Amino acid sequence: MTTTTTDGFLIVDKAPGMTSHDVVAIARRALNTRKVGHAGTLDPMATGVLVLGFGSGTRLLQYITDGDKSYRATVVLGASTVSDDVEGKVLKTASAETLASVTNEMITSTLDKMRGTIHQRPSSVSAVKIDGERAHARVRAGEEFELPTREVTISQLDIVEIRRNQSSIEVDIEVTCSAGTFIRAIARDCGDALSVGGHLNALSRTRVASFTLSQGCSVDALKNGDFTPLTIVEVARSIFPIRNVGEDEALELTFGRSLSANSTEEITGAVAHGTLLALLRNIDGVARPIAVFAAKN
What we know:
The protein is of the alpha+beta class. The protein has helices at 20-31, 61-65, 96-100, 104-112, 135-140, 183-193, 219-224, 232-239, 247-254, and strands at residues 8-14, 36-38, 47-54, 69-77, 79-81, 90-93, 116-120, 129-130, 133-134, 150-164, 169-177, 198-208, 211-212, 217-218, 242-244, 259-260, 268-272, 275-283, 286-292. It folds into three domains: 8-67 and 209-233, 2-Layer Sandwich (Pseudouridine synthase); 69-201, 2-Layer Sandwich (Pseudouridine synthase); 240-292, Roll (Archaeosine Trna-guanine Transglycosylase, Chain: A, domain 4), CATH 2.30.130. It starts with 7 loop residues before the first strand and ends in a 5-residue tail after the last strand. Keywords: Isomerase, tRNA processing.
């Protein structure tokens, strides 16, 4: 059911073949506002959780983007592609004999080595910027380059199933990782390590921070106005410790003034009467507002 809420969040189950910006454009029309953003891009081929913030909700998106994420994916061993996924031009393929020499134990051992904090090279066909330009745009212009590695943490990398056919080996995996991790790079690096090439054939994001597919609406439901947004305070409660403040403290926050120190060093949401008033952080012995949502006019 649609609402007249001007600030909040939507969890959308992105359909394949769409960019994240396409979904934002649909949400702008559905919500009748231009102020809509998302917490982390999904590739056009990918499906799954896309967190949208609108109105003042956009100010919390950075904290959601920084959270860890979970995925289901299918790695295809036997061919490498320019984009490290099924949509890119094939660069090399492995022979049936070479593939047959790759055992399940070898695949498991290779993926096990990617678990933990590692240095990962992003795909060249990605949204990473180089000198102010997206890497994928430079690839389309004919440039050949490798992006520098970055430190990421992969806390879960489990094999669900391994399937074999004459020209490839398909490996279904489940991954939980830090922000900035490329699942396509896992496929590429697994194929490279096994000397057979690898790319991603399917990808679904199942969780972003505390938000899951069970909370999501479909793109069709979004188009039809069949959705119920999450409020800012609901989302704040899911990602921050909460400090309930009284009337005097609430008034101070509307002027952007500091309060006595929080009991935690984490960013804390200040809430009064079910409304998020501000985000607080301990600085120089006081809880200083770093974002105020109910300012005094």
